[in-house]
Amino acid sequence: MIGLMCKDPARGKTRLAATMGAERAAMFARAFLQDSVALAVEIAQRRSASVVAFAEGEVTLPGFTVVPQSTGDLGERMEAAFETLGYPSLLIGTDAPTLPPTLAELAMAGLYDGADAALVPALDDGYCLLALARPAPALLRGMPWSTPDLMAATRHAAAGMRLLELPAWHDVDSEVDLEILRLSIEGHAPPGCSALPPWRAMECRQILHETRL
């Protein structure tokens, strides 16, 4: 099963909104959501799986199963999402709309090859994707979410587990990250990222073209 953690795009992206304003940030948030939904569908089709969207706030995705996110911090909400999906399963968010779908395939393949967990690190020392073969509360509880310490803490929590760490990718948290997004949309491998072909992210491509950022 493939899970997508998402939220109402009308809330925009907080760090984007701080520099470009709430309206433009919400425009990008909608594009990130639409492209991430298309990415999740692509991953699911490659794995003959289904997609479930776990929504924070009002999110309408016609044709998709949408489940409200549970309460608690991000780790608690992700843990609840994994329990809903069952195992093995994979979760992505909407902050990495150009994530190469092949990385997701490799993550799931790693679980079937014996890994307990697989992830794609992000350039900001978080991660873009997490796949679990079985419950792994140590990776989700008490973690320093949204900080540069997340990957180090995750590696430490995974001691004794078989953790597959795939090549890194980038996410988009601030306006500075949009130039990296442009690189990947143009088909380039951003510095420090996997050389695999990025997801086409057509909605983001259109916005970047229109706004000439």
Can you put this structure into words, describing what you see?
39% of the residues lie in helices and 16% in strands. The chain contains seven helices and seven strands; from the N terminus they run E-H-H-E-E-H-E-H-E-E-H-E-H-H. The chain has helices at residues 14-20, 22-47, 74-85, 101-112, 150-157, 177-185, 202-211; strands at 2-7, 51-56, 65-68, 89-92, 117-121, 127-132, 163-165. A seven-stranded mixed β-sheet has the order 3-2-1-4-6-5-7, sandwiched between helices. The model has no long low-confidence stretch (mean pLDDT 92).
Q: What is the name of the CATH superfamily?
A: Spore Coat Polysaccharide Biosynthesis Protein SpsA, Chain A
Structural class: alpha/beta
Helix content: 25-40%
Share in β-strands:
15-25%
How many E-type strands?
7
Q: How many distinct folded domains?
A: 1
Major sheet? 7 strands, mixed
- Name the average pLDDT: 92
Distance between the termini: 36 Å
Roughly how many Å is the radius of gyration?
16 Å
List keywords for this structure.
213 residues; alpha/beta; Spore Coat Polysaccharide Biosynthesis Protein SpsA, Chain A; 7-stranded mixed sheet; 7 helices; globular
